[in-house]
Amino acid sequence: STGEPLLGLRDVTVRYGGVVAVDNVTFDVPDGAIVGLIGPNGAGKTTLIDAISGSVSAEGAITIGNESLANKKTHERIHAGLGRTFQAIELYEDLSVRENVVVGLSGRGRAGAAFDEAEFDEIFDLLGLAHARERPAGELSQGQRQLVSIARAMAGKPRVLLLDEPAAGLDTTESHWLGDRLLAIRDSGVTIVLIEHDMSLVLRICDHVQVLDFGRILASGTPEEIRDDPKVAEAYLGSM
Ligand code: ATP
Is residue 23 within 8 Å of residue 214, measured between CB atoms? Predict the structure, then answer.
């Protein structure tokens, strides 16, 4: 991790018909950082990571390292180093944790590639899933389910991991444990963009926070600066 910009967004705009869901968003995600992406419901957070991962089309520039993602399809963006999770986790309930990760890989341009067991061991160790690898997904806690979806994304060997509310549905203990796992992922060299409503998690693990409101960047700074920013409090109040 160099701290140099790894993921770059310049004037990224996404329109749904007449609705501007993401409006001229510009920021860098430094290599090796955990960057929080927060904001009220409907602010455009998921749409922004959809734009980065290529599942919606966007205006503006999106780069990873020196590589432009603009005209790349989703699988090419995965190849370029992007991984992501989704708000709704879809697991095969009867398949084991390990099988769920293997199945996930086949959708990521690695179908037929040799599945290196040592790679899996590394990912499962990092995520604290080693003891659960043969358990059916249907028996897992919500926190473990989140980690399986992250393991799927990690199996694509991302340089940047985009996480959409991984603490949703977790209690305080599980959320803290998830935070430890995310720090371990970061320490292994993976840069993280974290959409999250759990502010204690954001305050604890993020190096930097970007606040979206009505599709625009409302504020950015350290977690403490964001917590103490009256503009941010007002945006959240306005949404309640
Ligand atoms: P949440 O925290 O509730 O997940 P969010 O910040 O992720 O919210 P988005 O889901 O990105 O916000 O939504 C941003 C805006 O774009 C909202 O006004 C939403 O209604 C609109 N929007 C999202 N997806 C679509 C779509 N497929 N078609 C039309 N409008 C959409």
Answer: yes
Residues 12 and 22 sit within 8 Å (Cβ to Cβ): yes
Residue type, 72: K
Residue 211, burial from CB neighbour count under 10 angstroms (0-12, 13-18, 19+): buried
218 lines ligand 1 (CB under 6 A): no
How many CA atoms within 13 Å lie on the side-chain side of 176?
2
Q: Is the ipTM of this complex over 0.90?
A: yes
Which residue's CA lies nearest to atom 19 of ligand 1?
A: 42
CA distance 18 to 20: 7
Q: What is the pLDDT of residues 122-144, one digit of tens each?
A: 999 999 999 999 999 999 999 99
